[in-house]
Amino acid sequence: MTPVSEIALWCVAFVGSHLIVSARVVRPRLIRAIGDQPYRGVYSLISLGTFIPMTVAFGRHKHAGAMLWYLRNFESARVLVWVAMALALILIAAGVVRPGPSAMVGRAENVPHGMQKITRHPTFAGISLFGLAHMLMNGWAGDLWFFGSFPALGILGGLHQDSRKLGEIGQSYREFKAATSFFPGLAILDGRQRLALADIPWFAIVIGIVLWIVLVIAHPYWFGGSPLG
């Protein structure tokens, strides 16, 4: 097996296992069979059981395969990645501080507020942006498989979660989905939402920026390479 094939195999296993275990048909059956908390434990074990080997494979074969593009010498590309990573970390922090639709089990909530006006899936959107930003700076085939698994999980996971919640909650979630967007800011740009000062996730912004600064400084020591060039 080639290095790129090894990375690709674990990437497919990582994304695919998430979607299968949480599928509308599989998830309820597993919960009925073993209970909600054990299901969460199984889900976490499967996630780690695929994510760790995927990361190890990438770590062993970084920059494997054909190089499809190289943008590290372009300052404008680096600045774009810095901004994208800051936004990604803010979105992920916002999703952790105030969970989105995944926490709306059985609730009849359909009025977006706060971060939900910006995106109904902040964590998925942040993970997607993280992967896309790294794909821009890592144009090798193996790297694209690894970092591409994050937007694949984020986009497919968001679509999958929407489908599942429509089945679980029904009309209330349908109204919530129609009033919001997955792509950050799209519902505001097209007039479906209006962002007030009280909606801005200040705490998540602070956490995201702090994490961004830490990662920029620590990146050469933890992951190799320097975001600063």
Topology:
Blueprint lengths: L2 H19 L4 H9 L1 H25 L14 H23 L24 H16 L3 H29 L1 H9 L6 H4 L12 H21 L7
Helix pairs in contact: 1-3, 1-6, 2-3, 4-5, 4-9, 5-6, 6-7
Explain what the structure shows.
It is a single chain. The protein folds into two domains: 61 residues; 160 residues, no CATH class. It contains nine helices and no strands. Helix 1 packs parallel to helix 6, helix 2 packs across helix 3 and helix 6 packs across helix 7. The radius of gyration is 19 Å and the shape is globular. The mean pLDDT is 89.
Question: Which features does this protein show?
Answer:
mainly alpha, single chain, globular, 229 residues, 9 helices
Summarize the entry for a quick read.
With 229 residues, the chain is mainly alpha-helical. It is 68% helix and 0% strand.
- Describe the main β-sheet briefly: none
User: Looking at the structure, what is the overall shape?
Assistant: globular
Mean pLDDT: 89
Question: What structural category do the secondary elements indicate?
Answer: mainly alpha
Task: Point out poorly predicted stretches.
Answer: none
Alpha-carbon distance between the two ends: 33 Å
Instruction: Give the total of domains.
Output: 2
Cα gyration radius (Å): 19 Å
- Overall helicity: 55-70%
